[in-house]
Amino acid sequence: MLTAKFDTFKTKDPSEGIDPTTPKDPKTGFRYKSVPHITLKSIANNKSLDPIFEKHEPIVESALHTLNGTLFDLPPSLHQQLVRKLIAKHQEKGARAVTDADQRRWLLPGTDTQLIQSIKGCNGQATISLKQAQDYRDAIPEHGSWFEWEVPFDTDPDWPAPLQAAFTAYRHAWSAKMVEVNAASRRMRIRRNWWISRRSCAALPA
């Protein structure tokens, strides 16, 4: 132990690199190696994404238009059935068990808000408070259709076949776009890492 050598780390001690005989104070914190990462700003400024969006956006928008078109043929009985699923899960498992995916899947555009009311719990079932009922009503997409960021993540077995087919087609179109976006972002990250490593190597002392 007396003759062993151990790695040392640079600290934020002001005396670092000035007096080699002065002990470094770890309480000042350590200097960590920084690594580049992809941010929303860097994605927005990535010009290589423009051709991808120009290629895929018309396809995604068309698929979304078709998907929204299937919503107009849904009978009120389906909305009632899906709302009952949401209420049953809330009462049986509690509000925390009802996920965002559940609400997207069961509270379809065009759902009558009057179907969702506060319910007092009994026989071990959870209460649906006034606020919780209002939150569910607010989760119903407005204008009878979905925006791209409101589309469910998956389907429900009780959805009619045309709605399930249109949803699957939309998700395939959206996924195809994201595959190319992610690939372009990875290429940007690789190029950026290579450039930073070159600059770092050039700055090292001989």
SSE pattern: HHHHHH
Strand content: under 5%
- Helical fraction equals 40-55%
Radius of gyration using CA atoms only: 28 Å
User: Overall mean pLDDT score?
Assistant: 83
**What is the overall number of helices?**
6
Shape estimate = flat
Quick one: biggest sheet?
A: none
Could you name the key traits of this structure?
50% helix; mainly alpha; disordered C terminus; 6 helices; 206 residues; flat
How would you sum up this structure, described in words?
There is one protein chain. The protein is mostly helical and 206 residues long. 50% of the residues lie in helices and 0% in strands. It is built from six helices and no strands. Helix 2 runs antiparallel to helix 6 and helix 3 (76-93) runs antiparallel to helix 4. The longest helix is centred in the C-terminal third of the chain and has 43 residues, at 161-203.
Topology:
Layout: H1 40-44, H2 50-70, H3 76-93, H4 100-106, H5 130-138, H6 161-203
Helix pairs in contact: 2-6, 3-4
Quick structural overview:
The protein is mostly helical and 206 residues long. The chain is flat.
